[in-house]
Structure formats: C-alpha cells, structure tokens
C-alpha cells in the first residue's frame, strides 16, 4: 500500500483530429495558385531599406539597380581571377630568378676554374 495514497497516474490525452482545419487541400491546383499566388520567383527581402534578391546562390542587392548588383558580382569574380593570375606570375618570376641565380653561380664557378687552369698552365711554362 502506497505511503501517500494513490500512485501517480496521468490522465489520458485525447487523440488529435486528423482532419486539417484548412480547406485549401480541397481546392484544385489552379485555384490554389490563384488564391495563394504560387507563381513566385527567387526569394527576396527588404533589410534596412535595401532590397535583396537570392540568385545563383548569393544575395544580390537590388537597391542600386539589378544590373549594378550583377556587375558588382561579375567584377568580384574577375578580381579573384586576376589575383590568382597575379600570384601565379609572382611564383613564376621567383622560379626564374632562382634559375638565373643558379646559372650565374655556375658561370662564375666555371670562369674561376678556367682562370685556375690558365694560371697553372702559365706556372708550368
């Protein structure tokens, strides 16, 4: 026998109604499109007085005109390409300078060997 009376037994919750409260599911597709305006474009929003539209995986500002936003995106991509090309050219210049240094050192070593051979030949005479 329990110490404080009955054991804990919660009340059973009534099952939910399976039918939707909305009658939209009874409408055919064309009526739903007209009623709800399902012909939509890319997502858009307004933040701080600026309009933004989601295109090609990025948010583009429409405040300054659609073309300027796209132009800005194009210029950013071009800037990244040019920076990559610039880094590649800097690397090539560094490699060429290393090659030039190596060749110059080899030339000076050969020149010194020739001078040594000439001086040895003069001593023998």
Largest sheet: 3 strands, antiparallel
Q: What share of the residues lie within helices?
A: 40-55%
- The termini sit apart by 129 Å
Unreliable stretches covering 5 or more consecutive residues: none
- Rounded mean pLDDT is 81
Secondary-structure-based class equals mainly alpha
Give the DSSP E fraction (strand runs of 2 or more residues). 5-15%
Radius of gyration: 40 Å
Continuous helix count: 2
DSSP strand count: 3
- Strand sequence of the main sheet, in spatial order? 1-2-3
Q: What pattern of helices and strands is seen along the backbone?
A: HEEEH
Q: Note the overall shape.
A: elongated
Organism: Sander lucioperca (Pike-perch)
Protein name: Chibby 1, beta catenin antagonist
Keywords: Coiled coil
InterPro entries: Chibby_fam
Report what the structure shows.
The chain has 125 residues and is mainly α. Helices cover 54% and strands 11% of the residues. It is built from two helices and three strands, in the order αβββα. Strands 1-2-3 form a three-stranded antiparallel beta sheet. The longest helix has 59 residues, at 66-124. The mean pLDDT is 81.
């Amino acid at each position: 026998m329990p110490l404080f009376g009955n054991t804990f037994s919660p009340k059973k919750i009534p099952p939910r109604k399976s039918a939707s409260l909305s009658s939209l599911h009874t409408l055919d597709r064309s009526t739903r499109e007209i009623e709800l305006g399902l012909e939509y474009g890319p997502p858009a929003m307004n933040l701080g007085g600026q309009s933004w539209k989601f295109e090609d995986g990025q948010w583009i500002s429409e405040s300054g005109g659609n073309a300027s936003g796209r132009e800005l995106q194009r210029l950013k991509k071009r800037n990244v390409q040019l920076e990559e090309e610039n880094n590649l050219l800097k690397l090539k210049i560094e490699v060429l300078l290393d090659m030039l240094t190596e060749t110059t050192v080899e030339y000076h070593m050969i020149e010194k060997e020739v001078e040594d051979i000439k001086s040895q030949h003069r001593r023998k005479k």
